[in-house]
Design goal:
By secondary structure, the protein is an alpha/beta fold. The chain folds into two domains: about 150 residues, Leucine Aminopeptidase, subunit E, domain 1; about 325 residues, 3-Layer(aba) Sandwich (Aminopeptidase), CATH 3.40.630. The protein is about 35% helix and about 20% strand. Strands 7, 8, 9, 10, 11, 14, 15, 16 and 18 form a nine-stranded mixed beta sheet that branches. Strands 1-6-5-2-4-3 form a six-stranded mixed beta sheet, with helices on one face. It has a three-stranded mixed beta sheet with strand order 12-13-17. Strand 3 and strand 4 form a beta hairpin. Helix 2 runs parallel beside helix 3 and helix 5 packs parallel to helix 8. The radius of gyration is 24 Å and the shape is elongated. The two termini are about 30 Å apart. The structure holds ligand BES, manganese (II) ion (MN) and zinc ion. Zinc ion (ZN) binds next to strand 10. The site of manganese (II) ion has 4 residues, from loops.
């Protein structure tokens, strides 16, 4: 898809010659399009009771009089915000489905299009065309326009252009994350993730190293190894490096949980919905997607992506409850529940991160069911002892429309991890499960500013629309870009 910013022509919006024109009409305003013919068509449709300027309402008009675009799609929005615009555009695109549109133009009545609107449009258009086909080639592809134009005032042209570029890169990153996470665990293996990382590295000039079991043993990642132990599928430890600033500039390190399938191990999960545990590499997928977006946008900042990836399986040699392992940090861990495996692979990756002397480390993980109970499927859980870093991530979350909510990390929660046989246990009681998981990780992050995103509730959807969301690629990309801006 090719995106362009288009200055409103002198003759008005009606003279834009596209195959289809989506006009977003905010419900909280009365402003028209500024085009006589279009405004007349909207007024007539409204008067006839065919259209109401309300969120969720759309109307398809075929060849409106005096309007050059053959098809006009009116779409009501709650207000003129980028968020409401995103929803209204998505509805507009859905309503145009099945009609052959090679050039789509989009406009906001009353104008006021900003970079955020442009970004939202590009992301939504990229996602509208995504269909999972890898193991279902019969799934029908959705034909998407080759060209999408966002109509804007001349004064905002440059800003809108920049927003479209950013949105397209994020959209492609989101689509990549969705595709990886959607693939079943017999396709999306640790080996596959390693190959994907290399492929992205080649395309966007990132340094990519993929370590195998031998190298991981040499590093002393006893905790990570204990999770991979029960599986026949070889583990991988992926290191991706994007160099956008001076070598000496401390990088941002992103660490993604890459459990390609979580059976629970010997602490076996119940059968219901266990298939959804193929999404347990959603954190890793978001790191791949973000590295892709960053590789395309080339901000002036250094970024490292780390992905420990393996399966969590029961077997005759699998780790047993009560086993004690030594992490790369030297701290010993009593594994009371083999289903609390995410923290066991992340802790060694967090220790590995120290060698980069990071400016900040953010880990992303489908870590706990408890986080889904606490926040549902809307907000990701954000944990950080660092108020400044937490603030930056919340700001990135807001600007990317990728919701996150801060959770506590008081030292009182740490008590739950006491063990009689090791420096710590890998689980506490059921109470505050997402917080004790974060407290566990915190024990491995003393060397740098750190934050943790629990995305168990937001990385994928269950039910009839089962599938990966690609979250939080938007949040992470905005965070990295804001850091680049700060350094420039
Ligand atoms: N991958 C799961 C967490 C999860 C649960 C993600 C539901 C998405 C939806 C994780 O490895 C896990 O099993 N966590 C346990 C921890 C418990 C044993 C302390 C959980 O949440 O039940
Ligand atoms: Mn688990
Ligand atoms: Zn898991």
């Amino acid at each position: 898809m090719n995106f362009q910013a288009l200055a409103t022509p002198a003759g008005g919006l009606g003279t834009v010659a596209a195959d289809a024109l989506i006009v977003v009409l905010p419900a909280d305003g009365k402003a028209g399009t500024g085009d006589k013919a279009l405004d007349a068509a909207i007024a007539a449709a409204t008067k006839a009771g065919d259209f109401e300027r309300k969120a969720g309402r759309t109307l398809y008009l075929h060849s409106a009089e005096g309007v050059k675009s053959g098809r006009v799609l009116l779409s009501g929005a709650r207000d003129a915000s980028a968020k409401a615009f995103r929803t209204a555009v998505a509805q507009g695109i859905a309503a145009l489905k099945g009609r052959s549109v090679r050039h789509l133009a989009v406009a906001l009545a009353g104008n006021g299009v900003t970079a955020a609107h442009a970004e939202a449009l590009a992301i939504v258009a990229e996602q509208a065309g995504y269909v999972y086909q890898h193991t279902k080639p019969s799934a029908e592809a959705i034909p998407m326009p080759a060209k999408v134009s966002l109509v804007t005032d001349k004064a905002e042209l440059a800003e809108v252009k920049q927003g479209l570029v950013q949105g397209q890169a994020i959209g492609a990153g989101v689509a990549l994350a969705r595709e990886c996470a959607n693939r079943p665990a017999n396709f999306c293996t640790p080996t596959f993730l390693g190959e994907e990382a290399k492929r992205i590295g080649k395309e966007f000039r990132l340094d990519v190293q993929v370590l195998d079991r031998k190298a991981v043993e040499k590093l002393g990642m006893g905790s990570f190894l204990s999770v991979a132990r029960g599986s026949e599928e070889p583990l991988r430890f992926i290191v991706m490096q994007y160099h956008g600033a001076a070598k000496k500039d401390a990088p941002i390190v992103l660490v993604g949980k890459g459990i390609t399938f979580d059976t629970g191990g010997i602490s076996l999960k119940p059968a219901a919905e266990m298939d959804e545990m193929k999404f347990d590499m959603g954190g890793a997928a978001s790191v791949l997607g973000t590295m892709r977006a960053i590789g395309e946008l080339k901000p002036k900042v250094n970024v490292v992506g780390l992905i420990p990836t393996c399966e969590n399986m029961p077997s005759g040699i699998a780790t047993k409850p009560g086993d004690v392992v030594t992490s790369m940090s030297g701290q010993t861990i009593e594994i009371l529940n083999t289903d609390a495996e995410g923290r066991l692979i992340l802790c060694d990756a967090l220790t590995y991160a120290e060698r980069f002397k990071p400016a900040a480390v953010v880990d992303i993980a489908t870590l706990t069911g408890a986080c889904v109970i606490a926040l549902g499927h809307h907000h990701a859980g954000l944990f950080s002892p660092d108020d400044a870093l937490a603030g930056e991530l919340l700001e990135a979350s807001r600007s990317a429309e990728d919701p996150a909510w801060r959770m506590p990390l008081d030292e009182e929660y740490d008590e739950a991890l006491k063990s009689n046989f090791a420096d710590m246990a890998n689980v506490g009681s059921r109470a505050g499960g997402s917080i004790t998981a974060a407290k566990f990780l915190q024990r491995f992050t003393k060397a740098y500013p750190w934050a943790h995103l629990d995305v168990a509730g937001v990385a994928y959807k269950g039910g009839a629309n089962k599938g990966a969301t690609g979250r939080p690629v938007g949040l992470l990309t905005h965070f990295v870009l804001s850091r680049a801006g700060r350094q420039a």
